[in-house]
Design brief:
Shape of chain B: globular
Structural class of chain C: alpha/beta
Shape of chain C: elongated
Number of domains of chain C: 2
CATH superfamily of the largest domain in chain B: MetI-like
Number of strands of chain B: 0
Largest sheet of chain B: none
CATH architecture of the largest domain in chain B: Orthogonal Bundle
CATH class of the largest domain in chain C: Alpha Beta
CATH class of the largest domain in chain B: Mainly Alpha
Helix content of chain B: over 70%
Oligomer: heterotrimer
Chains: A alpha/beta, B mainly alpha, C alpha/beta
Largest sheet of chain C: 6 strands, mixed
Order of helices and strands of chain C: HEHEHEHEEHEHHEHEHEEEHH
Helix content of chain C: 40-55%
Number of helices of chain B: 13
Strand content of chain C: 15-25%
Chain lengths: ~200, ~260, ~250
Amino acid sequence: MIELRDIAVQQGAFALAGVTFRVAAGAHAVVMGPTGCGKTTLLEVIAGLRRPTRGRVLLDGDDVTDRDPAARHVGYVPQEAAVFRTMTVRANLAFGLTVRGRPSGPTVAALAERLKLTHLLDRRAVGLSGGEAQRVALGRALAFGPRVLLLDEPFNAADAATRADLIALLTDERARRPLTILHVTHDRSDGTAADAVLTNLFPP
Amino acid sequence: MRVRGFHWALGLIGGGYVVLVAAMLLADLSATSPGHLLAAFRTPEIRAALALSLASSAASTVLSLAVGVPLGYLLARARFPGRGLVELLVDVPLVLPPLVVGVSLLLVMRGPFGRAVHEVIPLVYEPAGVVLAQFAVCGAFATRTLRTTFTHLSPRTEQVARTLGCTPWQAFKLVALPEASRGVLAAATLTWARAFGEFGPVLVFAGVTRNKTEVLPTTIYLELSVGDLETAMAVSLLMVAVSFAVLLALRRLAPETPA
Amino acid sequence: MRRVPLGLMAVVLGGGVAAFAVNRQSRPAPPLVVLVAASLRPVAEQVAAEYGEPVELRYGGSEELVAQIRLTADLAPADLFLPADASYLDACGPHAAVSPPLTTMRAVALTRRDYVPADWAALTAPGVRLGIASPQTAAVGKLTKRHLDGARWDALSARLAVTTDTVTQSANGVKLGTLDAAIVWDATARQFAPDLVGTPLPELAGVRAEVRVAVLAGSRRPAAAALLAYLTGADGRRIFAAHGFAPPDGPSP
């Protein structure tokens, strides 16, 4: 479950005021809104990368507002993918596990299979296409088993078939374990995949 | 065809500088002789100066990177009070005349803090002072290069690493630093070259004692002081040859992946 | 590949630090420290080689050495000061002892062998590019200006292509061909032989300077006086003479 209570962010001329919503545990919610309205900022607040000037963030009922991003167990797929380009695809996928000293072999192999990345595993992540990079970023965010997944326009470099594939993968993940997804997009067709669409979150 | 004309024009403008540098090298070459080169290389004092030059510029390069990486990172990423002042301060060694850097270091050493340091590590007119004098200037070069490097790296990968369970230190070490490796190498190259050729602060702060604080630029100064232009130019060419070798070796270390 | 630069740097740094450590450990009891004008290096090196005790020679321009004495007398004290000419001794306060003159230097006109000025008029003829060390920083400039009467100095000034920081720099200018002639000390001219030749001219005859050595006020080493005596004695004269420095004479005639 993701719950925001009266979240406000003030940074220079940009401001986000009084955002409140709740995404039920295990749901896949899509946030719609025009470019530049603060969707990315909202994800950063949930991931703990940006401190809100006001309000609380609750994940599965825990107040995590003051918790370090490393302790929130949130998978984050930023819009620009931000793959670790000095590492191999395998190291990218395994990162959340290796940094915690956990074994990564089987998890990474399975994820790579489902994301169609197996043939790229030993390649450095630097020359990947946009779609490949987004799949790596998604796999990297899922591999360590987060309770919440934050997606920022994750399919904008994917064709319709790939998109359907990835949505299926997310649905599958939610069926296998508790996972709440918050998915930011400006594309209405992404809304069809979700079981909740949040609009009008950002009062002018 | 039009592109070719454009490139020719650029080549003509930039080529003038290349010709100037090549002309200087050729002139140096004509001012000395193979005999002088060989004699210079056989002189024990000059060999000692070469060794100290290599050791001190390597040490001051590492020291410069050791402060340049954290400082460059902070200036690129962090917002803190006095940041503008810090930015100005780290540029001071780039502006100060080299002799003034040396005199300023001497003045610092006269103060209570300097005296305390000097008691533990003798610096004034000592070999370790060569490193400090080079470092005082080169730290600014390293910081400047690395600040630019980190400014051009998106903080996003580090943020993702944080959500994946990294402490800020781990994110820096595992993600930001490897991504900055080309910038670090560029900074190392620039810093080393500057340290190897540094003269003014070294002359004033470390003094000129053969077999002790003499580096190759000092040798050139010493030979010019007694009018031995041939040996001075021979040592200059030795410096050019050694720095070519080191800079080429550094370039080969550069990761081949694009930034 | 990725780890190589840092690893290599660590090795290089380690080597550098080790070199310093070895360097420091192998150093014996502190030697006498002598500040020597860079132009007197050949003399000082021979003295250090022949003198029985260890001597540490610290070189520099005479005015830089004066600054060193003023700035660091208590941090890194030196024992003796041998500047390019005795005028620099006055610039750094009282001394524990000052030697009698070790050599006397006379101003000459330095030129290439194929261009030797016959007289003063030839030296200051139109088109001659002259050089001299600056009257502000070097004794040869200061004393030449003081000795020549106004009109002669003006004639010289009109031909000056450059005033240099040190006397050796103007001599280097002649050697490189950027100057036709320079007013330098006879001892400087001998350092540039055989390429260049110094010509004494009657107009410059009175321009002379002495080299003296001083025991610095900050020196606490009795051995300093012994080195001063060595330089003043027969050995010192022999070594100065071997490098083209004339024996000292009495007051200017």
